[in-house]
Amino acid sequence: MYRVLLLLLVTTGPLVGCGRPPESQPHPADRNRFERMTPQEQQQVAPNPLFVSIYKGDLEEVRVHADRSSTLLEQKNAVHGDTPLAVAIRLRERAIANEIILRMSVDSLRHKNDTGESYIYLASQQGFNDVIENLASKYEQSLGTFDVFDFSELDQETDSLERALFVALNAETAKTLQHYWFLGATHFEHPFNDFFHHRDLSLRTFLHRAAQENRFDVILWAADKTCGSNSWQDPDSFFLKRFAGHVW
């Protein structure tokens, strides 16, 4: 408990009541809401047959449309600029999301919607670790021999400067994100220190957001990683020595 309190105290800014609160209104990517929409409203959130198949939760139909035209995979809707993959993640259609990733180009993995949310951000919000892993794997397979794995290319900042860790559903998702961020930590230009200390527009860290939303397992995970004997900040830490060896 002491470590948790210490971790919260060293972060500046209020824990609650600052910045923008989480959305309370239902998102357009809601199956029940979609069924109640007028045809015109449905066209706004599902502008092609692939979107409609995702809302129906029909995996086989998704495969048919995705194989028929790759352009359907990259089309954005008119509400938040979400692509079919983003909608699949929001609807918690895990199998459909992974099926779509198989058919996407590597460049399209870097897509962000109109509020700057990446696929990694959305998957983290849902706790879809396998989706995060599949996105990272496809990105890694595209790298050349001398290219450096840089997870920040996928885990980009939102318009409010948040990254995926800010909305990680649980500790397991936070661990998954940390794993991929630190894959590139041997490269001295990689901002791996920023993984834990990054701040949004309101100067909040991921801990403020986790505390506001009562995601206590994420806070406990962070306490162990940044305050415990395994912390990369510890003088005897493997991570600190590893980084120092590549800089000095």
Short characterization:
With 248 residues, the protein is mostly helical. The protein is 51% helix and 0% strand.
Number of helices: 15
The mean pLDDT is 83
Beta-strand content: under 5%
Examine the secondary-structure arrangement and name the CATH architecture of the largest domain. Alpha Horseshoe
What coarse outline follows from CA principal-axis ratios?
Answer: globular
- What CATH calls the topology of the largest domain is Serine Threonine Protein Phosphatase 5, Tetratricopeptide repeat
Assembly of the depicted chains? single chain
Straight-line N-to-C gap:
36 Å
List the topology elements:
Elements lengths: L1 H8 L21 H5 L3 H7 L3 H8 L2 H10 L2 H4 L9 H7 L3 H10 L15 H8 L2 H13 L29 H13 L10 H4 L8 H7 L3 H12 L10 H10 L1
Helix pairs in contact: 1-14, 4-5, 5-8, 7-8, 7-9, 8-10, 9-10, 10-11, 11-14
What do these coordinates show?
- The protein has 248 residues and is an all-alpha fold.
- The protein has helices at 2-9, 31-35, 39-45, 49-56, 59-68, 71-74, 84-90, 94-103, 119-126, 129-141, 171-183, 194-197, 206-212, 216-227, 238-247.
- The protein has 2 domains: 1-19 and 119-248, Alpha Horseshoe (Serine Threonine Protein Phosphatase 5, Tetratricopeptide repeat); 20-104, no CATH class.
- The protein is globular.
Using brief descriptors, characterize the structure shown.
single chain; 248 residues; mainly alpha; Serine Threonine Protein Phosphatase 5, Tetratricopeptide repeat; 2 domains; 15 helices; 0% strand; globular; disordered C terminus
